[in-house]
Design brief:
The protein has six helices and two strands. By secondary structure, it is mainly alpha-helical. Strand 1 and strand 2 form a beta hairpin.
């Protein structure tokens, strides 16, 4: 699942907002990035809910970053866009939560779990500024 269109559009939108000197509204972002306005509006609501952006009403309103782009991690953005932690594989996060009770004999779970840890670590160290 790791990165879907939601994550991609959230990243592109936040980069555009971070590089702007004034708030960016959904209409402008939608046109500039060629993204469905209704889909983008839902993504922006999630980003606001997770406190990555602030919505300002009015004629000159729009979205601005709630904190500096150096402190917003890609992991935070993906989690906000997807409304859950990103996963590399569709498997239980721990041996104890394995739905088929075969985790102790699963030969690939340790590898996949290690990969998930490395992806989370990488995304938590990479910031919005790093990719902009």
């Amino acid at each position: 699942m790791l990165l879907t269109k939601k994550s991609e559009y959230a990243l592109l939108s936040l980069i555009a907002i971070a590089k702007s000197d004034e708030p960016k509204n959904v209409d402008v972002l939608s046109k500039d990035l060629n993204i469905s306005k209704s889909f983008l509006a839902k993504i922006m609501q999630n980003l606001a809910k997770y406190e990555l952006v602030v919505s300002q009403r009015g004629v000159n309103g729009g979205f601005t970053l709630k904190k500096s782009w150096e402190s917003i991690t890609i992991l935070e953005i993906v989690e906000a866009a997807e409304e859950k932690m990103p996963t590399v594989f569709e498997c239980a996060p721990s041996l104890q939560s394995c739905p088929n009770q075969k985790a102790m004999s699963c030969t690939i779970w340790p590898l996949l779990n290690n990969l998930q840890f490395k992806v989370n670590d990488f995304l938590s160290k990479l910031t919005l500024k790093d990719i902009a």
